[in-house]
Amino acid sequence: MATWQVRNEKQHPLSVVLKAMKNTRSRLGLFYVLLAFTALSLTLLELLPPMLLKRILDVNLKNGQIEQVWIAAFYYLAASMGSSIFAFAQTYLTTYIGQNILIDLRLLMAEHIAKLPMNYYNRTPVGEIMSYMSSDVDSVNTLFSSGLISGFTDMMKVFGIAMAMYVISPRLCFITLLSIPVLLIVANYFRKNILKAQMEIRKAVGKINTYLQELFNGIRIVKFYAKEDEYEKKFQTPLREHLKSIDHAAVFDSYFPCVMQTIKAIVIAAIVLLGAKTSDYDGTTVTIGSLAAFADLVSRLLSPVEALSQEFQTIQQAMAGLRRIVGFLGEEVEEKGKIQRLDNKFFVSEQGVSVTIRDISFGYAPDKLILKDVSLDIHEGKKVAIVGRTGAGKTSLMNLIAGLYKPHAGAISISGIDPYRLHATDRRKLIGIVPQSTHIFEGTLRENITLRDDRITQEEVEKAAKLVGLQDFIAALPDGYDTVIGVQGIKLSFGQSQLLSLARAVVCDPPVLLLDEPTSGMDALTEKVIFDAFRAIGNKRTIITISHRLSGVIDADEVYIMAAGKIVQSGSPDKLAGEKGWYSVFKQLEDLGWRLDV
Ligand SMILES: Nc1ncnc2c1ncn2[C@@H]1O[C@H](COP(=O)(O)OP(=O)(O)OP(=O)(O)O)[C@@H](O)[C@H]1O
Known about the structure:
This protein has helices at residues 13-23, 25-60, 66-115, 118-123, 126-146, 148-168, 170-217, 219-224, 228-277, 288-310, 312-329, 394-401, 427-430, 445-450, 458-467, 471-475, 494-506, 524-538, 573-577, 582-590, and strands at residues 355-362, 371-378, 383-388, 409-414, 431-434, 443-444, 484-485, 512-516, 542-547, 558-563, 566-571. By secondary structure, it is an alpha/beta fold. Strand 8, helix 18 and strand 9 (542-547) form a beta-alpha-beta unit. The structure holds adenosine-5'-triphosphate (ATP). Adenosine-5'-triphosphate binds next to helix 12. The chain crosses the membrane at residues 29-48, 69-89, 172-190.
């Protein structure tokens, strides 16, 4: 499990990577040591060929030592081959270390996703989150394969080569080093612009993902209303933005190596010119061997910088991805305070549990209240209906009772437990929830009921299916509970999906059930099947049913009428039927009896 934390999105992106490297020290310690050894060996081997070249030209050839030339040539070859072997080891080690760090990064992001508040998901498109998890993390990979660690070894090479240059000719070394500030200024200019372009690319990719997610979620509507052409046209906007930002990045990316090549050519020409004409500070003449070795060293000095330049785009891409990841990890997580757990004593009451809601206020945005001073007292094992017109705030209230959001003011207690602070793994044991529409996950019927919770036994799954009246349907399927449902499997009807959702809610036998418009849009017979299922599971459970019509709730002991985020009337159906007010208005409008006796 990833144990490191991101303080805030303002911290430098690389500090996250360095922290990750530190964190993997104990696991990958040997690999880091091997990598350091490889990098050092590579640097030393890099210096050997030019030194040998100098010796061949200045000593061996000058003095006619042909045998020595052979020996030097052999060492030259051995050094070049050694370089290749160490370069291979370095690539392998950096990839291995990089992949391990990426696993840690993905784990950290997955942990963060679980801790983010519901409000974050309300305001962030899913496509954007998918981009963080996929393409942004992938781009960070390049930081290891072609950036950070090879950058470090390249710096070692530059240092080693500069030392060798100094030994051969301090004057020429000085002239060469003069080019470094120019290189740095040029590189910095390109770095800034490429980074900007890469951030634009990342953003454009996020927009494309968001667009595609929206399109495929609503594909039925799009097809039904024949809106394909409009969507295709709309798709052109994010695609054009993407192309524009890629084009922007490509201009800088193509220019950079050319500029570097030109600087390299100028430095080599200056060295040859100055070196051929003059002698060094101490009066010694610059020999042909020194000059040849120097030209070779200049190439070798600039080649790490050149390599960096060629991989500049990928490094900048990684930095852009990393910056977005750091921003994502800096998103404020939910501070829930002291987390509560359920112990066995909690379930001893024969009657079930009570739900007390005291003066709660709540809104999705700080300046817009959706619920205002709402209070409800629901006694153990009672069936309560919350009725109100569309947009009255019923689902928002249910989300609060389910513990998905924290009220701005007031308190909710389920027999002493605050649902918001309840430990996530205990929530299902206390509350079952049937939302307005069921989400079917890709997988088997069993997995869809248990939600891949291995602690739930097959016996409990079968009991839940039987309770909601799904067992005959499941038994008739060739693979029974192992039948795959979802996009790649068999399709369930709306009513079957709702029954499955109910089985999912009751499989852990929770004492509280929250039902949000569970039968809306169903025909009377399917509604009866669902109502029968509710009655079967209702015994000793506290059930809160939400509906925007009176016929959508059953057997209520108490009804709360909601309007514009407030409770405007409450009482037993019989009491309310005798009063003037919202209930009788609803009743008249629907002209239906309270109890459904089909
Ligand atoms: N995730 C959200 N983010 C921001 N505002 C929201 C969100 N969900 C609901 N709202 C707003 O809160 C208000 C109440 O919505 P809510 O879904 O609670 O009403 P409801 O009574 O359940 O309606 P319905 O009967 O249509 O389901 C609405 O004005 C809605 O725009």
